[in-house]
Design goal:
By secondary structure, the protein is of the alpha+beta class. It has helices at 2-30, 36-56, 61-87, 92-100, 107-116, 166-171, 192-201, 203-222, and strands at residues 118-122, 127-129, 137-150, 153-158, 163-164, 178-191. It folds into two domains: 2-87, no CATH class; 92-222, Sandwich (Jelly Rolls). Strand 3 (137-150) and strand 4 (153-158) form a beta hairpin.
Amino acid sequence: MLEAILHGITATITMQFLLERVAFLLTALAYVMRDILLLRSLAVISGVLWFVLMYFANFSSLALVEQTLLLAINVTRIVMLIKERRSVSFTEEEQELYRTIFNRFSPVEFLKIIRLAEWRNAAKDELLAVESQPVDNLIMIYNGEVAIEKEGHEVAHLRDGTMIGEMSFLRGGNATATVRVARPTRYVAWPQEDLRKMLRRNPTMDVAMQSVLSADLINKLTAPTAAVAGGNGPSK
């Protein structure tokens, strides 16, 4: 009899312990998710587990109401995000950019960013920037290759997914190098001043863009100088 009681208590404690660990891991995992929809979904699952644990641990009614409120907020935001994503339509090229590079933006935010840009095609030897000259656009190579020249000497190549003019965009000033198209290239161009104004009006978009530019800079710094390519960029 006593052995059966002790076994039941041990089983109960073990199950509670496991549920607590799972709930904690789900909560921690939610905070490292880059996709906000996935983050909130994991938060809901962990929230349900915490609610169950709190209920059987005889937490106060106020604590249960607070947990229910948090769950309701997350569920509401999930529904809104799903509706938002269903209402946004991207072209195939835009979808690839969103999936590979701009995934820190919400779909609506990315739609605003990409609608501000202009898709262009450049022929071989066309200049996209000239050293020591003003830079009007922030450029991202979608498909193609450009050569980077400093003082008349070629120092690197940039390919799919890399930025041109990001230092001018971030710090102001003229181009630090000449950018010459090495082979027919398709790219996206944002008017720098218009983009700055949009990001100033939208702090979350500004943070997301800073993340994109930081990743681009890290990729350039860690890639071989002979050929710098966007590791997460679109590939055609």
